Amino acid sequence: MKNPLLAMMDKRRAGICAGIPSYCTANELAIEAILEQALRFDSPVLIEGTANQINQFGGYTGMKPADFRDYVYAIADKAGFERERIILGGDHMGPLVWSNLPEKEAMANSRELLRQCVLAGFTKIHLDTSMKVADDPKDERLSDEVIAERGATLLEVCEAAYQELLKTNPAAMRPAYIIGSEVPIPGGAQEEEAGLQVTKVSDFETTLKTYRKKFEEHGIADRWQDVIAVVVQPGVEFGDKDIHVYDRQAAKPLCSALRKHPNVVFEGHSTDYQPAQSLREMVEDGIAILKVGPALTFKLREGLFALSMIERELVPEEKRANFIDVLERVMMDNPANWQKHYHGSDEDKRIARKYSYSDRCRYYFSLPEIKQTIAKLFENIDGVEIPAGLLSQFMPRQYRRVRDGKLALRASALAKDYVVECTDDYNYAVKPD
Predict the structure, then answer these.
(1) Which of 45, 59, 380, 433 gets the highest tally of CB atoms within 10 A of its CB?
(2) pTM for this predicted structure
């Protein structure tokens, strides 16, 4: 079976403006919303996990690659979405999580992570070796040679694992690969970036040239056909309070350089919060893989907060889930996932914990107490009759869809519809029709 990402490349070479969103999330409600909406279409859905979310040691989700596969498939089964239409992706796969270790140990861990991903059926692999490890020189840039050498080594591991997988699953799909040395950190910028720079054409060309050279040196030149994209900085980013909106004129020299390389596209990281038209322009300009993660759970959090406001109006105080207050307390009791990202006064940080584009609260959604609180919130909302005017006050867009018979008046459906508002923008961007 042909990898659908390669089929996407065929469409683009035929002049069709095709692309695909890369939904990088491990949140159950977000994935459920994505797959339920995707039932309207016949195209595949790409769900990715990052190396810090899922790895052989569990990551912050507690899941290994095979666990993540089973987790996504279980959500798909619940939604009635065919497993065969799901592309599982591994993002920032390399020494990201182990950059504090010497190269020998960091790369050994990276190799095992990639092996487990391929054996678990991941068919989109982002080989990210752009970060320094503990014994790299501190005062000089990591060279393209080193980055590509480590990347080629990891691809060899992937290919060996794929051959191993074929022994038990002869129909297993070959992975497609993403490379790139100019890689934004997962989850958006930690600081406001002044004068965000688009990747230079020369740097893009050097990345391709250096990787091809390393593939030849490693005897895997025939696998260059499976490299479909290069991660670049097209001038889009988000931080705590700011969004850098795509400027196609600023990206024009970089995107024009793609015409010489019809077998690759660009993968854009941190495309969260971009206007729908900007996303569409990115796909038209060759940034055909659009990575989105925090924006999904940011929208889900908006929906949960709106439901909490409705709960305050309709449910007696002693029975409320008080999701907003519980989330704040849990984040204050466990500050490791936000304290390095939010700055300023105590009031600034309080507002950021709730409303920052960085959306650090997503790291807490999988905690048992938060999951229990969401379940109680849903139970409370489903146990009361919501006056139409009250729904309109706190969920005006959902009110219209409920009124028009397009959305069920259930708590989980109302919350997930916020995620759909985000995915609608990506569908507009990538689907030619």
Answers:
(1) 45
(2) 0.94
